[in-house]
Amino acid sequence: MDFSTGLTSGRYLHHWLEKMAQSGASNAELFAGTGLQPTQLEQHAPWLTQQQVERLFANAYALTGNAWLGLEFGMNLNFAAHGPLGFAGLTARTIEESQQQMVRFSPLVTGLVKLETHKDNRQQLSLVTVTAQPGVAQVAARSLIQTVLCSIYVMTRFLLGNDADIHLFWRCDEDDHMRLAFAHNSHTHLHFNADQDALAIAPVSY
Fold it and tell me: I want to staple 120 with a disulfide (CB 3.0 to 4.6 A). Which of 1, 24, 30, 125 is the partner?
């Protein structure tokens, strides 16, 4: 599976529907216009096309008016939620190797965003950047970036513990909703109006 195919694993639909049910949205409302049926989830989760993913996020936003659904969803996606991809990251020998595993296997999860690792030698930081692929609708792109970056944060925080510094860079304006989501940990540093959406840590082993 290559990211250019644009497919997204339907394994996350169960988690997404559970999250949306808390907001009062029904499966029928969320699936409107997607061609998906709730009964499809009873067996093997389907692969979703770009158009289906875009419609799911558009429906969710129209129903809730919540621009931070991706953030809230991603904060609930730990290693176990990702199946084999999560296992690859969890069993890596170092944090940097874990990040590289996430980047390497992310096309097996979705082709709608691209993950890359970078080194900022000046600030001694190791970064993972998340970028939506060209042509992805704005609402879906925003939600996917939030979801992926917050999930990476949850997994990185698990590996590093609560006392290690993690930097999150967001291209959006400063927002109280986002600050509140991370306020429980003083070692999480938020940077707004950044050049890229990214997570950064000091290179360490564990």
Answer: 125
